[in-house]
Amino acid sequence: MSVISIVSIKGGTGKTTTALNLGAALANHGKKVLLIDSDSQGNLTKALGQIPAELKYTLSNLMTQAIDEPDMLPEFISRATIQKSDNLDFIPANKRLANVLTRLIVMQTNRPLFGNDANSLRSEFVLKAVVDTVRSAYEYIIIDCGPNRDQQMLNVLTAADEVIVPIQAHFLDAEGLPDTLEMIRMVKSSLNPNLRILGVLLTMFHSRTKLAQAIQNEVETSYGMDVPVFSRQIDYSVRVAEHPIYGQSIFDYDPKNPAALAYDFVAEEVIANG
Q1: Considering only CA atoms, which of 16, 8, 18 is closest in space to residue 234?
Q2: Non-local CB neighbours of 242 within 8 Å, separated by 6+ positions
Q3: E strand or H helix at 11, and its extent?
Q4: Is 204 within a domain?
Q5: Residue 248: inside a domain, yes or no?
Q6: Range of the domain at 220
Q7: How far apart (Å, rounded) are the C-alpha atoms in residues 274 and 86?
């Protein structure tokens, strides 16, 4: 099985859309998939048709249990997990996740005071404890991450086996790519030595524009030797912006849309590279 984190330090690059539609595409291929919303804004949760503020059990409960009562974690996971379809489950998030972030910061700050207790859970490994509890139940776990370089992003990268980095085919987004790659390298060197980049994914791609083609060439030329670049881009479509409003993936909302075909192609590439 594989844990794939969708990470970029810039907002608006298509992280949530990619997490949702890649998960749906893998589920359509018969894979058992768990989506995890790791952003306190709860955008993935909203895109899956839920109202974050109304949910009693979310990722914040699970991370708190992992810290305080790890023996109770499996029970709370069963309460928090929502079934979207036969092959697709998800764990939601809401603003309470911000409280967990505060606690992670306190844990990290207090570590030098109390030393490295072998029996204590480090702040960077809390989400990993949650993920490891459910690993055996799924073929793919996909984690949607917020854009902030903080303890939550460290947790997302530490819990992952692989990373997909979506970038919008726009100059300013491409300029932010080095910072994201540096963050991944830092985690790989210090916290998660087996972490690998599955690929950079170009999103909101206007194939007929010279700018989009120039960005694609720049990314492939600058990073293609060291970092994989997905061979298929995600086409720009208004329908991609619309489908989360209805709590559906692009496959449910408009299965013949070019973006749906593109995400299906990316899923096939993920399966082949796994």
Answers
A1: 18
A2: 253
A3: none
A4: yes
A5: yes
A6: 2-53+83-96+137-273
A7: 22
Residue 167: CB partners within 8 Å, gap ≥ 6?
8, 10, 13, 173, 174, 176, 177, 200, 201, 202, 203, 219
How does pLDDT run along the chain (274 residues), one tens digit per residue? 899 999 999 888 889 999 999 999 999 999 999 999 999 999 999 999 999 999 999 999 999 999 999 999 999 999 999 999 999 999 999 999 999 999 999 998 877 655 555 557 899 999 999 999 999 999 999 999 999 999 999 999 999 999 999 988 665 556 668 889 999 999 999 999 999 999 999 887 766 666 656 666 766 666 666 788 888 888 888 888 899 889 999 999 999 999 999 999 999 999 998 6
Query: Which CATH number is 153's domain given?
Result: 3.40.50.300
The residue behind tokens 């973006």 is: 259
115, two tokens: 């030393």
In a domain, 147, yes or no: yes
> What's the pTM?
0.92
Instruction: Show the CA angle centred on residue 173, arms to residues 167 and 176, nearest 5°.
Output: 100
Residue 31 lies in a domain: yes
Number of domains the chain contains: 1
48/46 Cα distance (integer angstroms): 5
